[in-house]
Amino acid sequence: MHLKRRKFIETTAxxxxxxxxxxxxxxxxxxxxxxxxxxxxxxxxxxxxADQIDPLVHVLNHATFGARPxxxxxxxxxxxxxxxxxxxxLEQQLAPATLEDRVAEYAARRFETMGxxxxxLFEYQPKxxxxxxxxxxxxxxxxxxxxxxxxxxxxxxxxxxxxxxxxECKWLKVADDRDVIRPHALGKFPEMLRASLLSxxxxxxxxxxxxxxxxxSEKPNENYARELLELHTVGVHGGYTQEDVMEVAxxxxxxxxxxxxxxxxxxxxxxxxxxDLHDFGAKRLLGYVLPAAPEGLNRELRxxxxxxxxxxxxxxxxxxxxxxxxxxxxxxxxxxxxxxPEGAVKAVAETFRHTAGDITPxxxxxxxxxxxxxxxxxxxxxxxxxxxxxxxxxxxETDAGxxxxxxxxxxxxxxxxxxxxxxxxxxxxxxxxxxxxRWNFAVAISENELKGTKVNLxxxxxxxxxxxxxxxxxxxxxxxxxxxxxxxxxxxxVALLLASPAFQMC
Length: 506
What we know:
By secondary structure, this protein is mostly helical. Among the domains are: 321-374; 383-504, no CATH class. Helix content is 53%, strand content 3%. The protein is built from 26 helices and 6 strands. α3 packs parallel to α5, α10 crosses α14 (299-318) and α15 packs across α16 (342-354). The N and C termini lie far apart (61 Å).
């Protein structure tokens, strides 16, 4: 007997719905990916009850994209004392591979282009690729159990920023996010830097693919070399000179990317080295001498020589003391304050140097500084964090659709849209003009006005135990009398709390 296609779909959908009603954990893994991601609202939970932000709330504010209902209570059970419980949670987050993350991974798989091989990305419209990359990023931020990992993915995406609107970055940025940033987000910085340097997307974005010196009269393209020193490693005040920029550019000549516009029209996006475009002469970089290549090398040995020189360049810049300070400063700015405390920067930089750029122990040092624990409620959320934390706070069910992305665009913080190599700013001042759109967004989600996103505030209020307890959950502390009065009088209490300074500061 042959079932008609429509009947098959109806029958399959009914079966999946029936299984879903029985509980997500009973679904076969293959079927779970067919379901829309479910935030789900379970039983009662205990919100924070202190008058001030305590260590658990502080860690949820700074090391995640915000607390979900029940997170505070769950983490508090990891140890007897709040700070010890917070540290236990951070240790879990520093080992993301040990955390089950099926829901987020299944949700991200809905965006099929994210897993396509490099060459096949060119078969898609750039608009679709960009939309799915933005949506997958937002979905992971909202749903992932590996919250610190996702925070660091965003951090490094800014550090190694690539604007997908330039040239073939339209297709290549998807692979860069998947193959460069995500595998190394909590790994070793030198390995991530090398992967970024040889990323097809980065070679396109900062013109490394056209960096060549066929003879002594040809000037190499210094665009990537300058950003390598200024943004990615030693920093603008790291002590490098214009001569160092030019010497790095010479060292990195000859690497290019196969383009869909040029012959041989296959292997599109593949990175390859062309010896005839490389400068094999002697160089001097940051006080180190790099010798010239011996005469008479064959093609294979010439490529080996150039690759070894590239490796040496990376060794020089990643072990430079200024690089440790530059990275530590950015990390402390992100996790502590716009003006990062000097003592914390020094401690974090020391671990970065001692571990040869191992990101996990570097973060562990950051999280054990007194300055980190003192930096409570003083960091203004960037728009992406605000949106993700609001969705998490109200346990929204969402498809991370374009209506959400449109709000991020209006606030100036849609992922992968920053046009310059320095990435989205990580201080408050540039984002203060987004307050009206934040209020509009808070109203929209609390009133269920966003297509593809659903919030059940009635059930959430019942689960937490009433209005004041809900305010405790959203603010991370007991609300003041004035806050509760405004909550009741406004008629839009939840929206008011989401748009309040207390929620927008972390």
